[in-house]
Design a protein that fits this description.
With 501 residues, the chain is of the alpha/beta class. The chain contains 14 helices and 20 strands. It has 2 domains: 137 residues, Leucine Aminopeptidase, subunit E, domain 1 (3-Layer(aba) Sandwich); 312 residues, Aminopeptidase, CATH 3.40.630.10. The protein is 35% helix and 20% strand. The longest helix is centred in the middle third of the chain and has 29 residues.
Length: 501
């Protein structure tokens, strides 16, 4: 989708639709909305006075101009209460407007820059949020559909103009909108990967997707196969993989935003392209959702793509251990002991606690970079969903400064995280009688003991773990989040990288 920024007056735009806005409980519109109201002979004021439009967040009203202005329609979108308005509300109302325009069968429209007027938001940040909300709202995964759904319009939005008045505002908005386009498109690509059926997203196919992306965006790419993994001593990853006919891959991406930056930031994503639970098999009901157990990998791929597209001036490494976890005659078993790349031995209590095993090897591999920070993302535990719900990721870290960076990025992007405790007492639950550590500590504090397991392989690196089991997929539509894979973590990671000084 093309998001352009242009100077002008919104009421003078010759287009099928213009979008303006109102805060809740405003009795008389001002700014651009006021100018449109005046040109329409007070129609918006009349709408407010009648009580038919109150400006509540994401409420809309549609007016037909009948030649009073060049645009054929005016869409008014509610901003909610002024004191509660922020950048995420900009994303939401932009998404609401885009969805309405698509429902009308339009392919283009013009909009004011939500938030840059009375709300006083930074023009670049507001324009980025407009672009993100608009593009994210239009996402649909239809690759495998051969028939159109009833009533579905095949036409798609292809152009949105953000109309602003001043030259300085326009320049700032152009920069923000351009960033928003790159970030939103990276999120939508990550969503595609998460939504893809497992037979269309095997470990080797995932590596091929990463290879193509790396070539397009100028990233270094490498994918290790089983022989190289054995040479490196990745016994945990290979142990999980041995039950599947699909070969595992260990995918390495590198963005050299600064050649003089010897210590990179490392991003690690869990890449379970399908997780049956292995010998400790999951219930059949809902198992089809386990195609999305590689949402952490998708988030890392998306973040690496955006980092390259935005030319973020940091050296960033992306690591993705990718495999299936299936039961078979060759599958690893409860009671087995595997050895990770660091030399630590692991007693397998449950083969369904496989994500932490493959991350152990990825964390051990990350040590060679001597990174300034490591962040891993994984749909790791149902326990985290029980604790925090479906819209929040659990944040676990051995480093307060790194955790603070993630929390700041979370606040800016509204990809919510909540820091969880990491007290030493939790490590008692994963002590093994036959190995250095066991891969599960039972039901109590399951997400925390999983993080304590990972901490042993992070060792002295500044490290944070995001358990994204809850927000990785959505069960219902929201303004800029359609049902299905969310791409959670892409925007958060990109914001963290952009803010890293």
């Amino acid at each position: 989708m093309n998001i352009e920024v242009k100077r002008g007056a919104i009421q003078e735009e010759e287009t099928e639709l213009i979008v303006v806005n109102l805060f809740e409980d405003v009795s008389e519109p001002g700014g651009a909305t006021g100018a449109v109201d005046k040109a329409l002979g007070g129609q918006i004021t009349e709408l407010i006075a009648s009580g038919d439009f109150k400006g509540k967040l994401n409420d809309t009203a549609l007016l037909y101009t009948r030649g009073a202005i060049p645009a054929k329609r005016v869409l008014i979108v509610g901003l909610g209460k002024k004191e509660q308005f922020d950048l995420d509300k900009v994303r939401q109302v932009s998404a609401t407007a885009a969805r309405k325009a698509h429902a009308l069968g339009l392919t283009q429209y013009a909009t004011v820059l939500h938030g840059a007027g009375a709300a006083g938001l930074d023009a670049a940040q507001a324009a980025q949020a407009v672009a993100e909300g608009t593009i994210l709202s239009q996402y649909r995964f239809t690759q495998h559909m051969t028939e159109k759904k009833n009533g579905e319009d095949e036409r798609e939005l292809d152009k949105v103009a953000i109309v602003v008045m001043g030259e300085e505002t326009a320049q700032q908005a152009k920069e923000g909108a351009a960033a928003g386009v790159q970030i939103a498109e990276a999120v939508n690509w990550a969503r595609d990967l998460v939504n893809q059926p497992a037979n269309y997203a095997t470990p080797s196919i995932l590596a091929d997707e990463a290879r193509r992306m790396a070539k397009t965006y100028g990233l270094k790419f490498q994918a290790l196969g089983p022989a190289e993994m054995r040479t490196l001593g990745m016994g945990a990853l290979l142990g999980v993989a041995q039950g599947s006919a699909q070969e595992p891959r260990f995918i390495i991406l590198e963005h050299n935003g600064r050649s003089d930056d010897p210590s990179p930031i490392v991003l690690i994503g869990k890449g379970l392209t399908f997780d049956s639970g292995g010998i400790s098999i999951k219930p059949s009901e809902g198992m089809e959702k386990m195609k999305g157990d590689m949402a952490g990998a998708a988030a890392v791929f998306g973040a690496m793509r955006a980092a390259a597209a935005l030319k973020i001036p940091r050296r960033v490494i992306g690591l993705v251990p990718a495999t299936e976890n299936l039961p078979s005659g060759t599958a690893y078993k409860p009671g087995d002991v595997v050895k990770a790349i660091t030399g630590k031995t692991i007693e397998v209590i449950s083969t369904d606690a496989e994500g932490r095993l493959i991350l152990a090897d990825a964390l051990g591999y990350a040590q060679r970079y001597q990174p300034v920070g490591v962040v891993d993302l994984a749909t790791l535990t149902g326990s985290c969903v029980v604790a925090l719900g479906t819209f929040v990721a659990g944040l676990f870290s051995n480093n307060d400064a790194l955790a603070a960076r993630i929390e700041a990025a979370s606040k800016a992007t509204n990809e919510k995280v909540w820091r969880m405790p990491m007290w030493d007492e939790y490590a008692e639950q994963i002590k093994s009688d036959v190995a250095d550590v066991k891969n599960t500590g039972g039901r109590p504090a399951g997400s925390i003991t999983a993080a304590k397991f990972l901490e042993k392989f992070a060792e002295n690196m500044p490290w944070a773990h995001l358990d994204i089991a809850g927000p990785a997929a959505a069960e219902k539509d929201a303004p800029y989040q359609p049902k299905g894979g969310t791409g959670f973590g892409v925007r958060l990671l990109v914001q963290m990288l952009r803010d890293w000084k």
